[in-house]
Specification:
The structure is a homotetramer. The first copy, chain A, contains 11 helices and 15 strands. By secondary structure, chain A is α/β, with parallel strands linked by helices. In chain A, the strands form 3 sheets. In chain A, strands 7, 8, 9, 10, 11, 12, 13, 14 and 15 form a 9-stranded parallel sheet that branches. In chain A, strands 2-3-1-4 form a 4-stranded antiparallel sheet, covered by helices on one side. Chain A has a two-stranded antiparallel sheet with strand order 5-6. In chain A, helix 6 crosses helix 7. Chains in contact: A-B, A-C, A-D, B-C, B-D, C-D. At the A-B interface, helix 2, helix 6 and helix 7 of A face helix 2, helix 6 and helix 7 of B.
Chain lengths: ~350, ~350, ~350, ~350
Amino acid sequence: MIIIMDSKATDADIQAVISALDERGYGHHVSRGVERTLIGAIGTPDGEKQAMSDRLMTIPGVERVVAILRPYKLVSREHQEETSTVYIGTAAFGGGHASIIAGPCTVETEKQTLEAARAVKAAGAHCLRGGAFKPRTSPYDFQGLGEDALKILAAARDETGLPVVTEARDVRHVELVARYADAIQLGARNMQNYDLLKSTGEAGIPVILKRGLSATVEEWLKAAEYVAAEGNLNIILCERGIRTFETITRFTLDLAGMVAAKQETHLPIILDPSHATGHHSLVQPMTLAGLAAGGDGVMVEVHPHPDRALCDSIQQLTPRNFEKLMERVGQLAAALGLQLG
Amino acid sequence: MIIIMDSKATDADIQAVISALDERGYGHHVSRGVERTLIGAIGTPDGEKQAMSDRLMTIPGVERVVAILRPYKLVSREHQEETSTVYIGTAAFGGGHASIIAGPCTVETEKQTLEAARAVKAAGAHCLRGGAFKPRTSPYDFQGLGEDALKILAAARDETGLPVVTEARDVRHVELVARYADAIQLGARNMQNYDLLKSTGEAGIPVILKRGLSATVEEWLKAAEYVAAEGNLNIILCERGIRTFETITRFTLDLAGMVAAKQETHLPIILDPSHATGHHSLVQPMTLAGLAAGGDGVMVEVHPHPDRALCDSIQQLTPRNFEKLMERVGQLAAALGLQLG
Amino acid sequence: MIIIMDSKATDADIQAVISALDERGYGHHVSRGVERTLIGAIGTPDGEKQAMSDRLMTIPGVERVVAILRPYKLVSREHQEETSTVYIGTAAFGGGHASIIAGPCTVETEKQTLEAARAVKAAGAHCLRGGAFKPRTSPYDFQGLGEDALKILAAARDETGLPVVTEARDVRHVELVARYADAIQLGARNMQNYDLLKSTGEAGIPVILKRGLSATVEEWLKAAEYVAAEGNLNIILCERGIRTFETITRFTLDLAGMVAAKQETHLPIILDPSHATGHHSLVQPMTLAGLAAGGDGVMVEVHPHPDRALCDSIQQLTPRNFEKLMERVGQLAAALGLQLG
Amino acid sequence: MIIIMDSKATDADIQAVISALDERGYGHHVSRGVERTLIGAIGTPDGEKQAMSDRLMTIPGVERVVAILRPYKLVSREHQEETSTVYIGTAAFGGGHASIIAGPCTVETEKQTLEAARAVKAAGAHCLRGGAFKPRTSPYDFQGLGEDALKILAAARDETGLPVVTEARDVRHVELVARYADAIQLGARNMQNYDLLKSTGEAGIPVILKRGLSATVEEWLKAAEYVAAEGNLNIILCERGIRTFETITRFTLDLAGMVAAKQETHLPIILDPSHATGHHSLVQPMTLAGLAAGGDGVMVEVHPHPDRALCDSIQQLTPRNFEKLMERVGQLAAALGLQLG
């Protein structure tokens, strides 16, 4: 931490900062400039840096406290320099590998899910997705089939060999989802559901952690740190759009933020162009853009009959359009030297 | 719903929309204009309007679907015209009454909490707040004392008579919090934790529902509808700032949004200037502003020694500053004809 | 400036920073911590701090450069501690005084403008506003009457005695507006029109500088610095809402940002609840809120017949509603010890 | 327009809407539903739709007015279905062609500019950029060399054959810039400088119109309409990032918004990854992403010695890195069937 004193800070103010640092076990180093005095806090005693920074801010004459170290450790590139490769079943994410996760928004029936699974498998997808516990903004909307959906997904895996990804919406779902699925997805609105993060960390299976609608990259990595701190580093981050003033797309897909995040963390990052844009016509351009930018995979919604889907009809691709998408993905991957799957 | 066809829509496209409406039990009314054909969907069959709207959007020639009805019912002014008055213990919120909730960010010790409780009681507060289960952005920060904190809060109520408000962070806390506290608070990051909303609705005690960092007023009211749909209408909404590009304050307190929300819902709305601004020097001006705008109460953080607090030192008022605040609040309330408590 | 080196910076990297500082005339002070080396740049050679900071960022091993000093001078409280009082004619803004500016969005006819002027004068307003050069988002919308409008405004001043405020949209309007009006308004979309800022600074008459839709407080004050740098410190800032994801109001009125800005600058700040909210029903609550928060005045749109206005019908008050507003403003000002006019 | 009456609207309210429509020359069509009455306004009398919509909103019982038609014409795909190809000199943008514009942020000296021009030419760029009139957020920063810079750019064109693009910051620069350059750039902060838009429209030479920091796609297209309405359809739009809460990049590059905008307009759209991200390490990934998404070109900052640049050191590429970028661009274009230049 660097404590920046304001231009009117007195010697007594400076001394008060030093005493506060002493009391908590920090060393200090004072540097008196022409217009400002700076105090460097030395050492990082155990406990809470944020709280200490806040406390210092209450001392008269303190203008600002600048943090020097990052607020996450295990997920940072300082902790591990090379990019991690995380596996969901046999599908690899990161370290030059990109995998495609595809399937319906929601598991509606066994027939619909199997149809989708076969179609995405045939087109070259590496994992199957499908919602069992749906987070819905209205209590009057369809909330998912729960465990029945999990059984259907497991059956689809048995038939197609595709590893299965599905969302846990609540701590009470974690164990259940872990029993059936190959990876647990945590939704954007749950990115800061800390109890759910911890439970998922404890469960130990691969986690797909979506970025919150209004989460900074730093907060996203701090959320991942909650999972990592439980000993689970099988984490794949997923950029799914942030909320901005622009409404022509449902959210604003932040690909530059994804790349900047990859410079900070060794964890692989994929993107979800379906939820980010909310429109099927934008899924192919954004998939290609995301992979060209260096994304480690893509999650795409595919439904055998989008016009009859129980939710998110607009953003789901038909099997035919997914096939076309995979063709273009293949061309792009070849040109860029990216390994699929 | 109104379905707006694009300028190149064919008769077959229009017919496809009509068939889709028929199939789901809607009537229809076609209006052919010079530049666009509009189709009004008549009736509101049970089930999901959003899903139907999305499905219609997949039909060729459909440019846009405009919803006519609001996506929430029980909390709307269409359902109940007059503003509700909700009570936490004896403190009234709404319908011309405004109450002040005050206390420390976190319950740290019995001594600290009792000291805060006595001070805010003496200065005229109507409820006591204090965190037992703290949602923290970093796993390495202090997470609260849990049930011990609840016992301390109950003791503070016994001594001061102040009703007690505290946060439940997870479904597993709801029953526990309901046993000790007079109202359950749901945090901004949990506004769309749907399972928690339902549990809290079922618990039946008063709920303070904070607005999510990036939640629109519409989404906030839909979240409240989750609680209401379980039969619990003892809901107080709390504006606590939204996330914007501006960082001179921690969040952007949206007072105009609060007033606009009050035009939509009969539920009372309070504000939390401490979390919204993140700085003690902004708490008094924003408290006065919020009450002048028509807010039904305020939640303010007060700590006997902010410079030693375990979290949020910068935003907590000293007892002396809270006393000054309450004096100004009294003058304002008198001038505006607002009943405190 | 403090240069924070990354954890892998070598001695050669550190030396490169020192050389770069030397070359530009800065002194330096190196502080080697356990995890990071910090380099303090000493002295502030003439020229561009931002450019220097950017250049240092290109040196390998530099993680971050933290600015110590504020990027504006003349408008800051470091330059002048006490709040300025700025006058438009006889109306005072700041230093315990708040004035009310009222009038139609646009000057449409002499009759309409005089009717509005008489009404706002009778209700107690201190200045008259009215648009002559309108910035419109569509080229097909009414763009204002230009110099004819300026003449009408001058006639209204002659009759009512109210000083007149109107907008200059372009450098070519500045001289003209200065000839007729008592203050020049610069619109939100022109906040970073630097040539216009300079021209207005040179013109020397009072300026109302609206905050840009997406301007941070820091950028707003830097824009004011452009005017001040030309020797004109008769600047009144005007908070008029920022663009956020929330659309229930047209913009998000940032009252906490206004108060935080007042802690940074000695310039008075008023608010424009009409444009910020876009709805007449929100004007009164936000006016009261803004004054309760410490605003130095309010600009309100009033039209004799809003239902016939050539623009912004929704947000303009009727004379009757403005009268009611002024009554409440009087009560509030009395309670808070605020001097009107 | 569709006028949606609220659930309590009376027959008199409905009649008032009809009278207002009649008076202004609109036909009408009333549709009484179970919960709401809708009134369709028929015909589009000349004049201002937005003003009419606003006026209707002042009538009691009117809940909402929904616009049916887009607020821009000449630039829309309804007006022209196929994508336009716009030329700057010989460089083509749109219709399957993408061109690369490269050069320094600012023209500093003849030597620096020629060095940059030769380097980008050698690496395969199609146009040269360089700032003569710089919009700077601080009055104390370097503001550009003005006409001297224009002469240097012209000299660089003479030597390399690259067409030249440079910014006009003010109406007074338009004629001058048009005399020396092959295209006029309008900056993000000037996107709603309507007088500048008109002047540039009148000048008739190709225009690069950057998206405003907080402009919606709709507002961006309305700004382009200002240029088009003067008879100039040689418009290239440029996505350069919008302002959001995320600060790890300077702005948030909105590639999905770019693709959505291309569905609305026939104008070509390019991107500026240098200004959008603010960091050279993000320029290559975002260039590839933008072209993969369907962008019609890229504008990239290249400086012979970024560490000595007078501004924006961090985001400018070295000639060597630009060369690498162009290699990757070549591979990508080949894979996607995109014609460069």
